[in-house]
What does this fold into?
Amino acid sequence: MHVDADSHMLDELLAAIRSEFPGFCLVRKDESRLQRFIHYALVALTFGGMRRYLHGYQTTIGKRIYVTPDWDSRPALERYVVLRHERIHLRQFRRLTLPGMAFLYLLLPLPMGLAYFRARFEKQAYAETIRAAAEVYGRDHISDPAFRDNIVAQFTGAAYGWMWPFRRSLLRWYDSIVSACNPDPQA
It folds into this structure.
């Protein structure tokens, strides 16, 4: 894709998000006192396993998407894929409200190790990541074992508090999303 076309896709998605979610905004994570607090809490709760929260993950709370300090320097298509994922979370917050989403996402049935609702919400969002990556980068990209392993590791590792330790079921879930993606139009 051409750089102007890449920026156009991103701009169109941002316009669609702003239209769907009045009051939506992007906020730099490192400039948010709340996000810095969450970062240090996650470092402690995961015994140092999650140290990349501020600089490695975008986070949606309510109508705000908290972005890493390098957000504006990331390629437009990468930001497009991430925003597709985060838009799913915006919709979840709208449907469940901030208190409902926080309760389910953070506590049920357990805060770590077996966080069914967190895994469910993230499966919906990561499915959109996979679909967006297929659209932008092609089917070969989402079929790459490294891409697949990275997404599965989000569920089984410290990043989300070991939210779903069942790797085989996650691999089946991932493969089902890939198989549902339309093949590349050029193929």
Observations:
- The radius of gyration is 16 Å.
